[in-house]
């Protein structure tokens, strides 16, 4: 089975942080017939998996759990493309938000098309690559390489100049941004994006937390790989 990864170009975040180019799953990971993580359009997201299990599932297929800086690179790149805004112009209208209005009762496969035309699951990057569900359907575990410790668990407060805080181009819950960090979440793991009932909270910059050892039916994960693998 071929897993579908796309290439993300090197990205300079607003605070000057450079995120090198990498590959990322075009879809949230599903569970393949062999029990391993799969990145396909037809597989429903693999949920009820905790943070460490998600990391291990990515490692098993020669990949790694998406990091905070990688997610921010994707979100920033997408936010700078006219085609991802409801008006067709960056900053006018709202940045696309995905499955969030309760039109479904559980996580959906990548090939599902919502009857609600405001639920736009796909975002296009500057290089023409497209990615599904950074902005809804299911939350996704994120390895925190900004505030986190060596295990990717949040280990400090969010500094005022943290990329996690300063990258969104508009205030929280405005113009499709979703919510983002405001206080100390030490000991928790990051989740991002929102789920099928997050409503106005959902968005590519939506940042929340959960206990890393818990499993939830609305939290999945996404894998990344270095360029060339």
Number of helices, counting only DSSP H or I runs of 4 residues or more: 3
What fraction, in percent, of the residue positions are helical? 10-25%
CATH class: Alpha Beta
The domain count comes to 1
Envelope shape: globular
Largest sheet: 4 strands, antiparallel
Physical arrangement of strands within the biggest beta sheet: 1-4-14-7
The strand count comes to: 14
Overall residue-averaged pLDDT value: 94
The span between the termini is: 16 Å
Describe the structure.
The chain has a 4-stranded antiparallel sheet. A 4-stranded mixed sheet has the order 12-11-10-13, with no helix packed on it. It is built from 3 helices and 14 strands. It has helices spanning 51-60, 68-79, 163-166, and strands spanning 5-8, 11-12, 18-19, 22-25, 30-31, 37-38, 64-65, 122-124, 130-132, 139-142, 189-192, 207-210, 219-220, 223-225. It has 229 residues and is of the alpha+beta class. It has one domain (1-229): paralog of FGE (formylglycine-generating enzyme) (Alpha-Beta Complex). It is globular and about 45 Å long.
Short description:
The protein has 229 residues and is an alpha+beta fold. It has one domain (1-229): paralog of FGE (formylglycine-generating enzyme) (Alpha-Beta Complex), CATH 3.90.1580. The protein is 11% helix and 18% strand.
What order do the helices and strands come in, and which of them pair?
Elements: E1 5-8, E2 11-12, E3 18-19, E4 22-25, E5 30-31, E6 37-38, H1 51-60, E7 64-65, H2 68-79, E8 122-124, E9 130-132, E10 139-142, H3 163-166, E11 189-192, E12 207-210, E13 219-220, E14 223-225
Parallel strand pairs: 10-13
Antiparallel strand pairs: 1-4, 2-3, 4-14, 5-6, 7-14, 8-9, 10-11, 11-12
């Amino acid at each position: 089975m071929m897993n579908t990864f796309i290439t993300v170009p090197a990205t300079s975040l607003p605070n000057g942080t450079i995120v090198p180019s990498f590959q990322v799953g075009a879809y949230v990971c599903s569970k393949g017939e062999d029990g391993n993580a799969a990145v396909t359009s037809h597989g429903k997201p693999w949920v009820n998996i905790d943070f460490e299990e998600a990391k291990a599932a990515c490692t098993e297929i020669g990949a790694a759990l998406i990091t905070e800086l990688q997610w921010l690179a994707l979100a920033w790149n997408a936010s700078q493309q006219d085609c991802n805004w409801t008006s067709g112009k960056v900053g006018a209208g709202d940045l696309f938000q995905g499955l969030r209005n309760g039109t479904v009762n559980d996580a959906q496969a990548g090939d599902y098309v919502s009857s609600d035309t405001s639920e736009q699951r796909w975002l296009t990057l500057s290089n023409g690559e497209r990615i599904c569900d950074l902005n809804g359907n299911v939350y996704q575990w994120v390895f925190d390489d900004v505030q986190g410790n060596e295990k990717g668990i949040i280990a400090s407060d969010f500094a005022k100049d943290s990329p996690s805080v300063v990258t969104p181009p508009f205030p929280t819950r405005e113009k499709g941004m979703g919510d983002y960090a405001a206080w100390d979440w030490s000991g928790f793991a990051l989740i991002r994006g929102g789920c099928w009932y997050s409503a106005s909270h959902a968005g590519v910059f939506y940042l929340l937390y959960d206990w890393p050892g818990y499993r939830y039916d609305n939290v999945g994960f996404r894998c990344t790989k270095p360029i060339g693998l």
